[in-house]
């Protein structure tokens, strides 16, 4: 397994021995992740790193892209 990191040690890509690669792009408090099949997830965290929301686009499960105008599945998390 080969992992590439950005300047602050966050994983950008993880390549498995068979060549399957998971990639992640970061912008402020969000991370956009695509798995080897191309399925996309947008994760949003608070300033403490707690996961707040995950948005999955079912269109991306079949080769589309996140935010393609179709229904997105959103999951929210609350911390006490």
Our estimate of the beta-strand percent is over 45%
Taking the alpha carbons of the first and last residues, their distance comes to 37 Å
Number of helices: 0
Average pLDDT score: 88
Q: How much helix is in the residues?
A: under 10%
Q: What general outline do the C-alpha atoms trace?
A: flat
Question: If strands are numbered along the chain, what order do they take across the biggest sheet?
Answer: 1-2-3-4-5-6-7
Domain module tally: 1
Output the radius of gyration. Answer: 14 Å
**Stretches with pLDDT under 50, minimum 5 residues:** none
Largest beta-sheet details: 7 strands, antiparallel
| SSE class | mainly beta
Counted beta strands:
7
The ordered H/E elements are EEEEEEE
Topology, please?
Blueprint: E1 2-5, E2 11-15, E3 21-27, E4 30-34, E5 40-45, E6 51-56, E7 73-76
Antiparallel strand pairs: 1-2, 2-3, 3-4, 4-5, 5-6, 6-7
Q: Could you walk me through the main structural features you see in this protein, from its secondary elements to its overall organization?
A:
The chain is mainly β. The chain has one domain (2-76). Helices cover 0% and strands 46% of the residues. It has no helices and 7 strands. It has strands spanning 2-5, 11-15, 21-27, 30-34, 40-45, 51-56, 73-76. It has a 7-stranded antiparallel β-sheet with strand order 1-2-3-4-5-6-7, with no helix packed on it. β4 and β5 (40-45) form a beta hairpin. It is flat. The N and C termini lie far apart (37 Å).
């Amino acid at each position: 397994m080969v992992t590439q990191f950005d300047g602050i040690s966050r994983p950008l890509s993880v390549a498995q021995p068979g060549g399957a690669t998971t990639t992640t792009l970061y912008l402020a408090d969000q991370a956009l992740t695509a798995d080897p099949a191309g399925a996309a997830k947008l994760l949003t965290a608070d300033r403490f790193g707690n996961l707040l929301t995950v948005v999955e686009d079912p269109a991306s499960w079949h080769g589309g892209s996140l935010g393609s105008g179709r229904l997105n599945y959103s999951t929210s998390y609350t911390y006490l």
